């Protein structure tokens, strides 16, 4: 869908306009109400146009205004309106336009009166694009024709603000959609090699510095934890490094993002059940979120030095696969007794967290579909997170609320650390059934040598069987990409 900014509405196939609950018209709706001889007022008075969040009503103006159809979307109560309200309402309107096969879609930024022109334009465009995302995959049937084909945002007198907001919304949405698509791909396509190639192609387009390390380079870095997990697969491991503003690393704050990139997880010799293995193509969703966020960081040209690290491999079974009670050595020289080969994500992240220290970061945040314990504890409503720094904690919480990718703080307690003690190595890679997500966080913390670090466990947030959020589909959600982008946009604030 191409994006354009117009000064005023024209002969669109459909035009999205917002109406608040309780009969309050938005500024754009008031202008249209006048042109339509008070029709919108009549509809709100009669109750036919409720304005409730999630509602919509189609009108055919028949020449009273140039647009062929009006899609009136409910914005909910004005006092409760947020940027997320705009995303949801825009998605509802864009989906209705798609159903109507409207090629040229006009959109008045939703909620301008409450959140301002720039924020309204950004959230509305983001919602419209994310709401019409589809994944046709490898089906042999013809993909549905993409409607709408053009999204035209009506700027009115706030053209500069609307333009800035709209294009930011497009950049953010396209990043999230990249993460969704990578997560949706089957594991015979989205291999470690494929992720590396995707990162290189994306970096070349947006101007990021990129390096994708192969096995010999990974071996030279003595990343024994990553290499142990990779041993069972014929797919070669990769270690992806993406860097924004590399030339200004001595002048700008450095933030490192680390994403788990297990492109399929059988559990290894600690094998998963048949049912538990379905969905494990999404075990690289953390890595997808980092790659996608780095795309947006470059396109938004954020005034930070940002590094994205994605260790990626498969966790499979072969005669060379690692087994329980092996002892492997991570890149910082620490030894790890393997108790469960299904606790592989923390192993590959350990080597990446050690690598992150070379950038002397102001903060490091890693994200991973790490533990079943997290899914049981929180479900898909929020990701669990752990932090060693209150400032970083607050940045993640506020960013999560702003984009509706919520994070919930969990404890880093010495009692969990004690459960990792091993008789044959510096530590075990698991510490028992209970408190598994917290134990995993304490394991990762052992590889952290910088003061500000956060770990996000997004298990259960990566893919959904169904969703009640209009701009988040079933399948890959892209969780984490928008969270990271928002955190970095607010970094200096």
Please tell me about this protein's structure.
It is a single chain. The protein is of the alpha/beta class and 493 residues long. It has two domains: 2-174, Leucine Aminopeptidase, subunit E, domain 1, CATH 3.40.220.10; 185-489, Zn peptidases (Aminopeptidase). Helices cover 37% and strands 19% of the residues. The protein is built from 17 helices and 20 strands. The strands form four sheets. Strands 7, 8, 9, 10, 11, 14, 15, 16 and 18 form a nine-stranded mixed beta sheet that branches. The chain has a six-stranded mixed beta sheet with strand order 1-6-5-2-4-3, with helices on one face. Strand 12 and strand 13 form a beta hairpin. Helix 9 runs antiparallel to helix 12 and helix 14 crosses helix 17. The two termini are 32 Å apart. The model has no long low-confidence stretch (mean pLDDT 97).
Task: Write a short abstract of this structure.
The chain has 493 residues and is of the alpha/beta class. The protein folds into 2 domains: 2-174, 3-Layer(aba) Sandwich (Leucine Aminopeptidase, subunit E, domain 1); 185-489, Zn peptidases (Aminopeptidase). The protein is built from 17 helices and 20 strands.
Topology:
Blueprint lengths: L1 E5 L7 E6 L7 H9 L3 H8 L9 E4 L10 E5 L8 H17 L4 E4 L4 H4 L1 H15 L18 E5 L4 H26 L7 H15 L2 E5 L1 H6 L3 H7 L7 E7 L9 E6 L1 E5 L8 H4 L7 H16 L4 E11 L11 E3 L5 E3 L7 H12 L6 E6 L3 H7 L4 E5 L2 H14 L3 E3 L4 H5 L8 E2 L7 H10 L7 E5 L5 E2 L10 E2 L4 H9 L4
Parallel strand pairs: 1-6, 2-4, 2-5, 5-6, 9-11, 9-14, 10-11, 13-17, 14-18, 15-16
Antiparallel strand pairs: 3-4, 7-8, 8-11, 12-13, 15-18, 19-20
Helix pairs in contact: 3-5, 5-6, 6-11, 7-11, 9-12, 11-17, 12-16, 14-17
